[in-house]
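Posting here for the record, re: NAP.
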Amino acid sequence: MAARYSHIRLARSFSTDTLAVVTAWTGRRPGPGREGLVGTAPRYDYGVSVTDSTSSNHQPQAVLVTGGNRGIGLAIARSFADAGHDVVITHRSGQPPEGLRGVVCDVTDSESVDRAFTQAEELLGRPVQVLVANAGITKDGLLMRMSDEDFDAVVDTNLAGAFRCARRAVKGMIRARHGRVVLVSSVVGLLGGAGQTNYAASKAGLVGLARSITRELGGRGITANVVAPGFIETEMTDQLPEDLRTKYLASIPAGRFATTEEVAGVVRWLASPEAAYVSGAVIPVDGGLGMGH
Ligand SMILES: NC(=O)c1ccc[n+]([C@@H]2O[C@H](COP(=O)([O-])OP(=O)(O)OC[C@H]3O[C@@H](n4cnc5c(N)ncnc54)[C@H](OP(=O)(O)O)[C@@H]3O)[C@@H](O)[C@H]2O)c1
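Prediction output follows.
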């Protein structure tokens, strides 16, 4: 019986969000369990109509976004805040962006990470439930000329920084038997990038980190996933020379760069109740650039 009506539950899950839902069936009547859903009957021609609902059963979550003062991290933080979640971002200097609460944090320093979490938890009034490890840097260079310092700095920030934040975050998550860890990687992590051995290695490492967290803590209600953006519309991509921009665009099946909001939407979904059974996954937001990897 449960399996028979799984499609009805699927339709209902859409109707509890802000989507308009049309279901299809092939009998004369909607049948049991379909009350409140409006359907099309392709074989018996009942016509089409639509239901709208704006209800949502999502509880506000306590969210910490590293590097949330600008770029993709800022879009992620704003997206969570706009959806009614309690958000704190980390920044290294200056003031947090308008309307967001911030704590100072350098992810290459364990003490700084610990202090930032303690302060964030005071601001949030509870332990962090959703960690978005977004802080990252690049220091590109050809392999033969790459210095130890440039390799180490990128791995220390992008990979070890995410590890330090995840290690601190799961303390509260284990106690609560609930938590979401989202690691912001890159299409380059699996595709590779000439001149980006340090960056690609650090971003590929996040996959092993998320999957090991999943194996270690999956039974405690904690998920850990990787989001792998491709080219994103940022100041950096805006300033690309026209010929390089055209070349990059030609390699992307979608034929365009992503917006920061498109990355934020996927991160938010991973933190939502609907994604409770998604863990250890690598979700590309790259318009098809890296598919198959
Ligand atoms: N932009 C893209 O096209 C793209 C594509 C794929 C993946 N990504 C990844 O997405 C993430 C965000 O990228 P973005 O383009 O938004 O970068 P961005 O604008 O350069 O911002 C990077 C953020 O990381 C923070 N950060 C850097 N080092 C840090 C450290 N040691 N401790 C704490 N925070 C630190 C920065 O803080 P400060 O402001 O203090 O410097 C800033 O908030 C990165 O992990 C990046 O690798 C980006």
